[in-house]
Design a protein that fits this description.
Blueprint (H helix, E strand, L loop, with lengths): L13 H9 L19 E5 L3 E7 L8 E6 L2 E16 L2 E16 L4 E11 L2 E8 L1 H5 L8
Antiparallel strand pairs: 1-2, 2-7, 3-4, 4-5, 6-7
C-alpha cells in the first residue's frame, strides 16, 4: 500500500535555502538564466576624526574597483569579466565568467566629502572619510552635578 506518490523530479531545496541566506552560491550549479552575484563583507567604524570602511575584495585589484560619493552616499562597485581554463588529460574546459557588485552606504552629516582617502592592500579596500572640523569643535563635555 502506497501512502504517497514519489516524485523523482524533486531536487533538494536545502542548498538554495542556504545560498539565499548567505547571499552567495555554495554550489557550482547555476539554473538557466540565473545570475550569480556576491556581496562583499564590510566593516564600518567611527573614530574621533574619521569614519573607516573596510571591504573584503579578494581577487580584485584597485583598477577593478570604482569608488564614488554621490547624493551623500559612498558607493563601492566592481564589474569584472574573467576566463578560467582547466586542462585535464586530453580535453580542455574553458569557463567564461562575469561578476559584479555594488555596495552603497549613507554618509552621516558629519562626514567631509572633500577629505576621503582609499587604499587597497591584500584584498582589503580601506576607505577613510574625515569628519568635518565643525563636528569636533561643537562637542562640549557637560559636567553632571
Amino acid at each position: 500500500m502506497k501512502l504517497f506518490k514519489w516524485n523523482t523530479n524533486l531536487k533538494p531545496k536545502f542548498p538554495a535555502t542556504i545560498e539565499k541566506f548567505l547571499g552567495k552560491k555554495i554550489t557550482d550549479e547555476a539554473s538557466e538564466g540565473e545570475e550569480v552575484s556576491t556581496v562583499p563583507s564590510v566593516n564600518i567604524s567611527s573614530a574621533n576624526k574619521a569614519f573607516e570602511v573596510n571591504i573584503a575584495l579578494p581577487g580584485l585589484d584597485k583598477n577593478d574597483v570604482k569608488l564614488e560619493i554621490k547624493d551623500n552616499c559612498l558607493i563601492i562597485s566592481s564589474e569584472k569579466q574573467y576566463d578560467k581554463e582547466d586542462r585535464n588529460k586530453e580535453w580542455i574546459r574553458k569557463e567564461y565568467g562575469y561578476a559584479s557588485f555594488q555596495r552603497m552606504f549613507q554618509l552621516p552629516e558629519s562626514a567631509d566629502h572633500e577629505k576621503v582617502q582609499a587604499e587597497m592592500k591584500n584584498g582589503i579596500l580601506s576607505v577613510k572619510i574625515a569628519k568635518k572640523a565643525t563636528y569636533f569643535e561643537n562637542k562640549k563635555l557637560i559636567a553632571i552635578e
